[in-house]
Design goal:
This protein is an alpha+beta fold. The protein is built from 16 helices and 20 strands. The strands form four sheets. Strands 1, 3, 4, 5, 6, 7, 8, 9, 19 and 20 form a ten-stranded mixed beta sheet that branches. A five-stranded antiparallel beta sheet has the order 13-12-15-16-17, with no helix packed on it.
Length: about 500
């Protein structure tokens, strides 16, 4: 089509909405059609922004409390507590080398009771090591500071949520008692000092998790063995140079085994050692706890008290598991499969989707809701535009008949009204974008619309504006609606020029 016919069609499309008498319905119909398109587009923009906001915020918060992937003991499922995993069984270097793995950190978590005065609350204690990425908790910190994650830190420091702080009246510097069951099911109370308060807005997790250094949880869980040798002093009886040596050990599963290295002695003791030298004992248990070695050096000729040594304990050789963060969520399942082939057979790889299926099912359902909304809006827009075109064609029946009488073909005439429909769509899209993006920015900056966090996980409606996705959806709407307008435009082909000129 040359420029002249295009200009003619454009001119006629504009003139079809002009009503010199001021009594016609052309302009009101056009304005109503534009308004309908604008409202529909605004609703689509807000729906996309809200759904993407929910998906982003909920996913980030859930991953922040855990990770994309967890390497834990097999058959552990979704339990709040983690069984022990020996460091030696996990090749962390191989995990970090997996393509797509961004960060690896050790952790452990156990159910516990938080007690302050007469108030008690069930919590999940999560211990993090010095390999932690503190960014998530640092951004969520509202008061105080983060605990010292270093294994060398002896202070019993605890990070609680703002929800827990309000319910139990806690603040930084306050001491609380934590009751945690060890491997044998015995409650082991310990006093912690609250050093910080965090708040994420994800109340399902804020009301549950408290954080401390990993080594405290390792010890409180009774993982591994602490072993030492005790030596009597002075000499036993009248036997010169003889020392009575006994072993004291705690931890493990309680089924302890004692092996006296180099002397072929078995059992707990005590044993009589004569002369100068060194004695060692290796302590392990039936739960395959990593062995600990305690040892003693004695010197009968020096007249000095025998020197005793204590093993450092094996609790630090165990963790609850490893958390892995991936660089691309869309590649989660590919990375999960790769990690699975790296870990031993007695360990399992669990994704954040496996651990929180109800949340991710809800997020997936939101996508369906948006698709449904878009479909309904497109249908409404088509019906709205079709009705507007039919009304305009009815009002301009005589004009259509005149144009057909002077020789204008049906095709160009249909093009006039399709062109008019496209103009209405463009104006509606423009106003819809102004309205939709304006509301989205307002909500994002002010959090004006609040939510019940118990039902929606978040306290305010989140907003994530993906301009590319919105533009793609709008382009699709424009194309579909423009094509659909050819159907009502076919009404023109049925008009008889003579009868049209008589139409009143």
């Amino acid at each position: 089509m040359s420029n002249s016919p295009r200009k003619a069609i454009g001119f006629l499309a504009r003139r079809m909405t002009v009503d010199p008498t001021g009594k016609g319905i052309a302009r009101p119909v056009v304005r109503i059609a534009e308004g309908g398109v604008a409202i529909g587009v605004a609703l689509i923009i807000m729906s996309l922004a809200i759904v993407q906001g929910f998906q982003r915020d909920v996913r980030e918060l859930v991953v922040g409390f855990g990770a994309h992937l967890r390497v834990v003991a097999a058959d552990q499922g979704r339990a709040q507590g983690t069984d022990r995993v020996a460091w030696a069984d996990v090749d962390t270097a191989a995990l970090r080398a997996v393509r797509g793995v961004e960060h690896v950190q050790s952790f452990a978590q156990r159910p516990a009771i938080l007690e302050t005065g007469e108030e008690v609350e069930g919590v999940v204690v999560k211990g993090l090591g010095d390999d932690v990425d503190p960014d998530f908790l640092a951004r969520a910190l509202r008061d105080g500071r983060l605990p010292n994650w270093s294994p060398g830190g002896d202070a019993m420091e605890l990070l609680v949520s703002g929800l827990q702080a309000r319910e139990l009246g806690l603040s930084p510097g306050q001491r609380v008692r934590l009751l945690l069951a060890d491997a044998r099911g015995e409650l082991r109370p310990r006093v912690f000092t609250v050093v910080g308060v965090y708040e994420t807005g994800l109340q399902e997790f804020d009301g549950e998790f408290v954080f401390c250094a990993l080594h405290h949880l390792q010890e409180l869980s009774g993982w591994g063995i602490k072993a030492r040798i005790r030596v009597s002093d002075p000499l036993v009886g009248d036997l010169p140079g003889m020392r009575e040596v006994d072993v004291a050990a705690t931890g493990g599963d309680g089924q302890l085994r004692y092996t006296w290295t180099g002397m072929d002695w078995r059992g707990k003791g005590p044993h009589m050692l004569v002369g100068q030298g060194e004695a060692q004992v290796v302590v392990s248990d039936d739960g395959e706890t990593v062995p600990d070695t305690a040892w003693v050096i004695w010197d009968d000729t020096s007249g000095m008290r025998p020197q005793t040594r204590m093993a450092g304990g094996s609790s630090d050789r165990y963790i609850g598991g490893l958390e892995l963060r991936v660089s691309d969520y869309d590649a989660l399942w590919t990375v999960s499969d790769s990690v699975f082939f790296v870990v031993p057979y007695d360990l399992d790889v669990r994704s954040v989707v496996d651990d929180h299926p109800e949340m991710f099912q809800w997020l997936t359902m939101l996508d369906f809701n948006v698709e449904l909304i878009i479909g309904l809006m497109v249908l409404i827009a088509i019906l709205n535009m079709a009705s507007a075109l039919l009304l305009l064609m009815l009002e301009r029946t005589r004009s259509i008949g005149l144009l057909k009488a002077v020789g204008m073909a049906d095709g160009p005439l249909m093009g006039v009204f399709v062109r008019l429909a496209v103009r209405i769509l463009f104006r509606g899209l423009a106003w819809g974008n102004v309205l939709g993006f304006g509301l989205a920015f307002l909500q994002r900056e002010t959090g004006l619309v609040a939510l019940d966090a118990r039902s929606y996980y978040l306290s305010t409606v989140p907003i994530e504006i993906d301009v590319v996705r919105i533009a793609t959806v709008e382009l699709g709407i424009l194309v579909v609606c423009a094509i659909a307008m050819f159907l009502p435009a076919r009404y023109i082909s049925r008009l008889n020029p003579v009868e049209s000129l008589r139409f009143d």
